[in-house]
Protein: TonB-dependent receptor
Organism: Phenylobacterium conjunctum
Amino acid sequence: MNIVFRRALCATSALAGMVLATSAMAQSTGTAVVEELVVTGQATRSLDGMVAVEEPKARSTISQEFISTQTPGATVLDTINLLPGVNFTGNDAFGSAGGDITLRGFDSQRIALIQDGIPLNDSGNYAVYPNQQLDGDLIEKVDVNLGTTDVDSPTAAAAGGTINYITRKPQDEFGARFDLGVGSENFRRIYGVIETGKVGPWGTKAWASYNRATNDIFNAPGKIDKTQYNARIYQELGDNGDFVSLIANYNVNRNNFIRRITLAQFQQGVKLPYDAACARPTPVAGTIQNEATSATGFTAACANYVGNNINPSNTGNLRGQSLFHLTDNLVLTIDPAFQYVIANGGGRTIMPENDPQLRSPTDLNGDGDTIDRVLVYWPNTTNTRRYTVNSSLIWKFADGQSLRASYTYDYARHRQTGQASLFSAGGDPGNVFGGKDGYGQAIKLSDGSILRRRDRQSFATLNQIAVEYRGRFLEDKVLVNLGARAPFFKRELNQNCYMRDTFNAYCTNQVGTVVVGSNDGAGVPFVTFPAGSQVPSAATLWGQPRKIERKYDKVLPNVGVSYDIGDHEQVYLSYAQTLSAPRTDDLYDRNVVNPQPEVADAYNLGWRWTSPTLLVSVDAWTNNFKNRVERQFDEAAGIFYSVNVGEVKLKGVDAQLSYKPEDYLSFYTSLSYVQSEIQSNFPNGAGGAILPTKGKSLYEVPKLQGATRVNWDITDWASLGVQGKFVGSRWTNLTNTEKAPGYALWDLDLRFKLDDIGMEKAYLQFNVKNLFDEKYLADISTNTNGTAQFQPGYPRAFVATLHAEF
C-alpha cells in the first residue's frame, strides 16, 4: 500500500507481528539494498497484509499475511486484484486455468512480470501466463509499480508498469507446512514444503515443495491438471547481510480450454461446452473418408472436441541471488537465471492425402489409399531457453545517500515450430507437443522433410545499463530518487517458411512461382503455390523466407521526489519513461515492417497519510502513450498486419484506504478511475479505408473499478474475511461499438485455528469465490472493430483447506 511510516511511529505502533524487513521490499537484490540504505532505522509495516512502503512513486504492495487468506493455489495475479489500477480476470476459481490482467489501461503484454528480479514475460510476444506462477505460500510479498519501473527492471516491455514478486527465504528452524484441499468442480489439491532449518558447519538452510492441483472445468467436459516443484537453498556469508542463494522451479500444466462465447450468447443465457467425444470415421481402403464438415473441406468435424482443445506447458527456471560487501560502503549484487519453456495452444487441420504440401500422395490414416481428408494435430509449439544476469554495484557514500550502477543481460533463444502429428481414433493427440523432436511422432514426407505449420526462430538480446542516485535532505523530510536506464534491445528473426502474415505460414520444399513485378517492401518478389488445404487460392501471395534484424534503444529517465509534511503526511511527485519494443508477431509479416517501439511518459502526483491504525493514499496520474501497435485484418487480402495507431492519452486517479480501529477488525477499500482517448483514426486494409477510432477509448479497460475487504477476528480461534471486486463496463473494440457489462464479485474466507484441540499452528480454512454466483463475462478476445469472444465467468465455487505446520 502506498503509505509511509515515519520513524516516530516505529516505537509506538501496536501492530505487533506485522513487521517486514526492509531488505525484503524490492524486486531485485540490488533494488532491495538501495531501498534499505535510505530508510535505515525504519520498519516497514502492514495492516493485515496491505503493506505501507516509502517510495516516491505509485506503488502498491501486499504481503504473505494477506496472500494466505486467499484461495490456496490461486495465481499470484489474482491475489493483487483488490489493489487500485489492477484488474485480473481469472478463467476459473482455482488459479490453474490462466486469465488476463490490466494495469491502468495497459494489457498484460505491456506489463512486465518479474520474479526475484528476473523477467517472466514471453520473450517473443511478452504474454503473461498466470497459471504458471509460483505457489502463493512461497511468496513473501508482491510489489505493483503503476505506470513505472524500478531503475534496474530487466525488461523491454513495460509501458504499463511492473508486477514484482519475491520468494520466501528458508526458515532458521526445521519444520514443514502441508495443505490438503477439496472443493467444487472436483477440486483436489495437495501441497507440502519441508524446511531444513540451519544445518551443517555454515548454517546452510533450504526448503523444497510439491504442489498438485486438479479440477474439472465448470462448463464440463474438460480438466485442469497442474503440478509444481520448487526448492531454495540459502547461505549466509558472515554477519553483515552477505549471502548466496539458488531457487529452482518446475511447473507442468495440462489444461483443456474453456469455450468462449459472444455477448449475444451471454445475454441469451447460451452455454457452449466442448464436445465430450469425437466420432472419427473408420479408415477403409478404396473408400473416401472425409473428416471435414464444410463444403471446402477446411473445417474439422472434431473441432469442438475437448481432447484437442488443449493448452499444455512445461516451464522451469533456476534463479540465483547474491550480495557481497566489497567494503563497508560498497556492495555488489548478482542475480543470474536460466528459464526453459515448451508450450502450445493445441490446434488441428484437415489434410487431403494428395495435398501439394505433402510433396506426393501420402496415406495419413493407414487404410492403404491416398484419397481421404484426414484430421491432423496441428499445434504451434514454442520452445524457449533464456539466460539472464541482473547486477548492481552500490556505493553508500554518506548517511542516507547512495549511488548505484546496474547492468542487465537477457538472452532468449525463441524457437517456434509446428510439427504435425496424428490423432488417435478417439481424436486425442498422440503427444501434446505434436511431432516436436523428443516428444511425439512427426509426419515425415517423401523428400525427407516433416509436415509442419510454422518454422521460425528468433534471438532476443537485451543489454541494459542503469544509474541511480538516492538521498535524503532537510532532516530526512525529502527523499530524492534520480535514475535512468538505457536498454539496448536486439531481435534477430529467422523465418524459414513462406508467409501470408505473422499467423499464416506455408512450410514446404515446393518451389513457388515468382510473381513478376511484385515487391514485399525489401525488393523481394512474392510467390504463389497451387491451391491446397493451407493455400486458399492459387492467387494467394506468399512472402519468401527471410532473416530480419531489428534494434531498439533509448535512455529512460526514472525520477521521483517525496516530502514529509509531518509525522503522518507525505506528498510525492514522479516521472518515468517506459518502453515496449515490438513483439515478434509484429515483425514476422509478409510485408517487411519496422514498427517503432511503444513509449509511454508517466507522471504521478500522490498524497499519503499514515498513522498506526490508518493508511490512506491518493494518486493522480497521466500517461502519454506513443506508437501503439495494433493487429489489423485486411479482409480483401485475407491477411493480418501491424499498424501504428499513434498516440493514446490516459489519465486517472487511484485511491486506497486501510483502517484498523481495533486489533480484531480492519477495513480496506480501493477505487480507480481511468480515462483513455485514442488521438487519431487509423487505416483499415486496402483502398484507403479507415477505422473511426479518434476520440475513442481503449478496449478491455473499465473506466471505474473498485474493491473492498473486511477482516474480523471473531474469537482467538476464528476469523472471517469478506471482499468484493467491482468492475465497470468495458469496450471490446477500438471503435467502441460493443461493450461488456460491468459486474461485482464477492469472495469469503473463514479460518478456524485448531490449537485448542492439540493441533498447534494448524487451521481449517474455507474459501468461497463468487459468493453470490454472479453471471458475468471475464477475459475478452478483443479486436479493433466488430464483435468479440469472451471467457465466461466462473460460477460460485467452494474450497476447504486443512493447513498444518510443525
Summary: The mean pLDDT is 90. Helices lie at 7-10, 29-37, 64-67, 76-79, 263-267.
